[in-house]
Amino acid sequence: MLASLRTPALAMAPVALAIGLLGGAHASSHREAPFITTVPKVDATDFYMFRSYASGDDGYVTLLANYLPLQDPYGGPNYFSLDPNALYEIHVDNDGDNQEDLTFQFRFRNELAGGDGVALNIGGKDVAIPLIQAGQVTAPGADTLNLRESYSVTLVRGGSRKGTARMLTNTSGGGTSFVKPVDHIGTKTLPDYAGYAARHVHSVNIPGCTMPGKLFVGQRQDPFAVNLGAIFDLVNVPSAGFIINPANKGAAPNTIGDKNVTTLALEVHKSCLTNGDDVIGAWTSASLRQGRLLDGSPGSGLQANEKAGGAWTQVSRLGMPLVNEVVIGLKDKDRFNASRPAKDGQFADYVTNPTLPALLEIALASPNIAPTNFPRTDLVTTFLTGIKGVNQPRSGKALSEMLRLNTATPPVAFAQQKRLGVLEGDLAGYPNGRRPKDDVVDISLVAVMGGLCMANGTDDKLGFGRACNPQAVPLKENSLTLHDAVDQAVVPLLDRFPYLNTPLPGAK
């Protein structure tokens, strides 16, 4: 079955249609739903899960959850601390029942140095400074830092609200509080940010696991590539000739290449994540307290005017990329963000009968390019169940959206990774998990416009059902070669944990 994906027809090639820059090419999950735009600190932007490919990390799985999108590096004076009144979570399903079996819960604590912050003696009076730093920062916990950010991580086994909870501890000293590096204010404040951030990678003991893990939370350069503004403007791109020429691969600008995000990163041995099946599913979420009381006359301190209380209420969710952004209808986007995978049957019509291909016909004034194989069993398999023989759990139930990874598939070294993942025969790539180098826009574009039905063929090689066949794909071979002209493979990345690049500085 998988050998059929390694065909010349799936190699990247130019397309004589202005579909190359399509609506699938949005930022993976940046500002994707109405409510989440009001609370950017809990807006999940991208989720990655893959077998660690750094030298010496064989057997480990890396999970990266990005939050707080579109950070301008110069965004002072307060920059981009995470919300101490929020709960950030990474959920793992390891028995195929579409419910979390392991949940890593992140809570943040933001404090002023010494309780009241750094003060300077001004004319005989100690006066609090207005900035988050009072000088150059070269080491964790530097006394020049006015804002001290720290966090804890709790592993819950069973349901995320009623399971058994134990905290991750530092392998050095056993502490449960971890220091988060300050954002990259600039090169004068932080002359060696890469070295400074590296000292915030913690070796941790994971409860119930015999193998130590790694932990990092901090600002990173946004690893996602997209021509954002033009896409939302009714696919406002140059003429078709722009993408007919092979030289134009990667010619469109990555409009978020100058942005940062905040990353929650874990590296966990696969034996600590699996439970009798090599395939695991995972997704992220963020929750806020049900009630918020604002004090019109707050006292001094950080976020002193906000008093939060009540039950945790989920407001953000992310598994596979692009789903809420370009699949879920506008009226249901907030509902999707509040839902859990086990309840995804309510959103099935958005996958079996997707609107995006028809919208592309409208935007591009190109009728009769949308696939006609309804229901779209190819999309159901790819996004809701996992592909048999690739990343489908043995006991999995249908209709749950999450990122699925077959932990038995060996990792591929960075230099040898194919940016189209499984479509190019690289079975360690998307949609078998997701690596930072995987071009999920191009892969998803091929999928939504029927490319997988072309690969499926009339003999149903991929198990999508016989309704999925080349006769249902108007674009035929062109559906296999769609691209957005923004090259994900050239985004700067690290070759080791936490894999995402050092954040861009506020000033050079």
The oligomerization state is single chain
* Main sheet: strands, sense, barrel: 8 strands, antiparallel
Percent of residues in beta strands: 15-25%
End-to-end distance, in Å? 51 Å
For the secondary structure, the number of strands is: 16
Q: In which range does the helix fraction lie?
A: 10-25%
CA radius of gyration: 23 Å
**Domains counted in the coordinates: how many?**
2
Structural class: alpha+beta
N-to-C SSE series?
Answer: EEEEEEEEEEHEEHHEEEHHHHHEHH
Helical region count?
Answer: 10
General form: globular
Ranges where pLDDT stays below 50 over 5 or more residues in a row are: 1-26, 239-246
Global mean pLDDT: 88
Compact summary:
The protein is α+β, with helices and mostly antiparallel strands and 508 residues long. The chain has helices at residues 193-198, 228-232, 241-244, 323-326, 333-338, 348-352, 356-363, 377-385, 440-448, 451-456; strands at 44-51, 60-71, 86-93, 102-112, 119-122, 125-128, 147-157, 164-167, 169-170, 178-179, 202-205, 213-221, 260-269, 279-294, 306-318, 403-406.
Task: Describe the structure in your own words.
- With 508 residues, the protein is an alpha+beta fold.
- The chain has two domains: 1-29 and 225-256 and 344-489, no CATH class; 35-105 and 155-222 and 259-320, no CATH class.
- The protein is 12% helix and 24% strand.
- The chain has ten helices and 16 strands.
- It has helices spanning 193-198, 228-232, 241-244, 323-326, 333-338, 348-352, 356-363, 377-385, 440-448, 451-456, and strands at residues 44-51, 60-71, 86-93, 102-112, 119-122, 125-128, 147-157, 164-167, 169-170, 178-179, 202-205, 213-221, 260-269, 279-294, 306-318, 403-406.
- Strands 3, 4, 7, 8, 10, 14, 15 and 16 form an eight-stranded antiparallel β-sheet that branches.
- A hairpin with a 7-residue loop joins strand 11 (202-205) and strand 12.
- The longest helix is centred in the C-terminal third of the chain and has 9 residues, at 377-385.
- The model is unreliable at 1-26 and 239-246 (pLDDT under 50).
